[in-house]
Specification:
The chain has about 140 residues and is mainly α. About 50% of the residues lie in helices and about 5% in strands. Helix 2 crosses helix 3.
């Protein structure tokens, strides 16, 4: 039970750290009518590629959203107040975003733990039992 409580605390801490950042959601969206593609592009930037065109390979209905997400992820636009191109998706990896937060620094062991849980390929991602044995959790006092 203490382990499950610790996971809830870790989840709360990450949500609290990210609460004031525009790395999730569409609060920083600059493209009209592209919400799904925008979110896919941000997820792709935060945790890594979902694969070639992501799940759209299995479901052609979403192919256009994934293609547009690729364009948004790599594309730029001209902002009237800024000299030079501005990226549509202006966020780094989740690790980079967590490392750049002001306030208490995020423990590198916690970053490694979060990275391991966000591996897209389920065959490489730890099971719940493996995650509960992760060194960061073992070294954290409850």
């Amino acid at each position: 039970m203490a382990r499950l409580g610790l996971l809830a605390v870790v989840r709360y801490m990450v949500a609290h750290w990210l609460g004031h950042k525009a790395i999730f959601g569409i609060s920083d969206k600059v493209a009209e009518d592209l919400t799904e593609s925008w979110c896919i592009a941000k997820i792709d930037r935060l945790i890594g590629p979902l694969g070639p065109l992501g799940p759209s390979v299995q479901n052609p209905e979403y192919e256009s959203e994934f293609r547009m997400a690729d364009e948004l992820s790599m594309g730029t636009y001209k902002h009237p107040d800024i000299d030079g191109p501005v990226p549509y998706i202006d966020v780094g990896t989740l690790r980079q975003e967590l490392e750049s937060l002001s306030g208490p620094k995020v423990d590198p062991g916690l970053l490694d733990f979060i990275d391991s849980l966000l591996i897209v390929d389920h065959t490489k991602r730890p099971t719940v039992a493996q995650a509960l044995k992760y060194p960061y959790l073992r070294s954290t006092k409850v």
